[in-house]
Specification:
- By secondary structure, this protein is an alpha+beta fold.
- It is built from 3 helices and 5 strands.
- It has a 5-stranded mixed beta sheet with strand order 1-5-4-3-2, sandwiched between helices.
- Helix 1 runs antiparallel to helix 2.
- The protein is globular.
Length: about 100
């Protein structure tokens, strides 16, 4: 039987989730909580299909991928036994490579 992978959240990704919630909650607290919960549940779907996201265009590395939800990009790294959520950010921005290298090392 295939071992189920775990979703691991980096400090960077948790900080970004908090920032997203704080930003949206300026307008509506309950919408902010619902939106962050949705981002988390989307990331959790990766346990069933880790390759469902697209390869991050700025990097072109097979095991660093992203899911897009509304205006946000969820960037993750596929490992043998885990999926590391590296960062989340507004989709019009480009991924900063230093964020990824900091999260991987």
């Amino acid at each position: 039987m295939k071992q189920k992978v775990k979703i691991l959240w980096t400090k960077e990704s948790l900080l970004r989730l908090q920032e997203i919630e704080e930003y949206i909650s300026r307008d509506n607290q309950s919408v902010a909580i619902e939106f962050v919960d949705k981002l988390i549940s989307i990331a959790e779907t990766l346990v069933d299909n880790s390759h469902k996201g697209r390869i991050v265009p700025e990097l072109s590395i097979e095991n660093i991928r992203e899911l897009i939800h509304k205006n946000y990009r969820i960037v993750y790294l596929i490992n043998k036994s885990s999926i590391d959520i590296l960062t989340l950010f507004e989709r019009r921005q480009l991924l900063k490579k230093e964020v990824i290298s900091k999260s991987i090392n």
